[in-house]
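STRUCTURE REQUEST FORM
Protein name: ABC transporter ATP-binding protein
Source organism: Jiella flava
Requested output: structure tokens
Priority: standard
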Amino acid sequence: MIVVEDIRKHFGAFHAVDGASFKIATGSITGLIGPNGAGKTTLFNVVAGHLKPTSGRVIMDGEDITGLSPHELFHKGLLRTFQLAHEFGSMSVRENLMMVPSGQIGESLWSTWTRRREIAANEHALAEKADKVLDFLTISHLAQEKASDISGGQKKLLELGRTMMVDAKVVFLDEVGAGVNRTLLNTIGDAIVRLNKTRGYTFCVIEHDMDFIARLCDPVIVMAEGKVLAQGPADHIMDNEAVIEAYLGTGLKNAKGARQ
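Status: completed
Returned output:
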């Protein structure tokens, strides 16, 4: 589905991404890990259209999407979430979901005067869909809460819910576990797996929680210093000496050696 070909992103003399290449298969949950500064988020931003690459290409379903804007990629079914959730704080959780689909009838001032019945029917349909999304994510009880008042983990679920309002094809998730307690992280993980299995969503996940990655992701891609260091099943990655040295730390390497 997604092919990243020799992507480079330079900021002056700093090479944040330095020739990264990999594939994300349709229907997979692919993990992207690496130490801070490895270039993971920069690569996400390039793929999702928030940054233009210095060189290289991104292909989606055979189409070159390099440099397309997030808005254009949104309409192609590629969405990206952020480490810090971006909610409309003064609106309810349900209203946040209803805002997502583009091209709504009520967006036109003229339509608000001439097509009131259609607008009402459209809003009713959106509210019904939002309620189904909330039920799927097991957060129906939050429907009327202000988005600013819910917890960080619940905001991550809300961001996931936004992708469901437009039936995304591929979703890039940036550190879904950041600031989230273990119970909610398990709930988020369950939702990701169910979306993958029942709705065919393809995911690429940046996450530092290796238990979360091992539970959800196959394959796992490791980045270090802007390059792809290794990729494969999670258990192989955990045993890869180069990965242990670059990411998991020499302490773990020594601990593994002491147990053998």
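Reviewer notes: The beta strands are 2-11, 14-24, 29-33, 55-60, 63-64, 78-80, 170-174, 202-206, 220-224, 227-232. The chain has a mean pLDDT of 86.
Form closed.
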